[in-house]
């Protein structure tokens, strides 16, 4: 079990949160200009690192806000939690 420190609500049990995948994936400004391969890469290709990973999380059973987390995927240690638009 992880304890996650929501930037707005404070420390809560992981069961209150939903994982939202890799953080900082930006939608292409002009999707119609992309090749099918580039569009497919944007939609489906994500990192799966062994070690530090930046993720987005949703406090779905709390304030219902999104935030970012930097977490070690090997040790589950949370290195940073920060609001959308901020840097760790
Ligand atoms: Zn919250």
Summarize the structure.
10% of the residues lie in helices and 38% in strands. The chain is mainly beta and 88 residues long.
Task: Give descriptors for this structure.
mainly beta, 88 residues, two-stranded antiparallel ribbon
What does this 3D model show about the protein?
By secondary structure, this protein is mainly β. It has 1 helix and 6 strands. It has one helix at 36-44, and strands spanning 3-6, 10-13, 18-22, 52-58, 66-72, 78-83. The strands form 2 sheets. Strands 3-4-5-6 form a 4-stranded antiparallel beta sheet, with no helix packed on it. A two-stranded antiparallel sheet has the order 1-2. Bound molecules: zinc ion. Zinc ion (ZN) binds at residues 6, 8-9, 59, 62-63, 65.
| Strand segment count | 6
Low-confidence stretches: none
Structural classification: mainly beta
Distance between the termini: 23 Å
Shape: globular
* Count of alpha/pi helices: 1
- Average pLDDT works out at 95
Oligomer: single chain
Cα-based radius of gyration, to the nearest Å:
15 Å
Proportion of residues in helical segments: 10-25%
Ligand kinds: zinc ion
**H-E string:** EEEHEEE
Topology of helices and strands:
Blueprint: E1 3-6, E2 10-13, E3 18-22, H1 36-44, E4 52-58, E5 66-72, E6 78-83
Antiparallel strand pairs: 1-2, 3-4, 4-5, 5-6
The site of zinc ion has 7 residues, from loops.
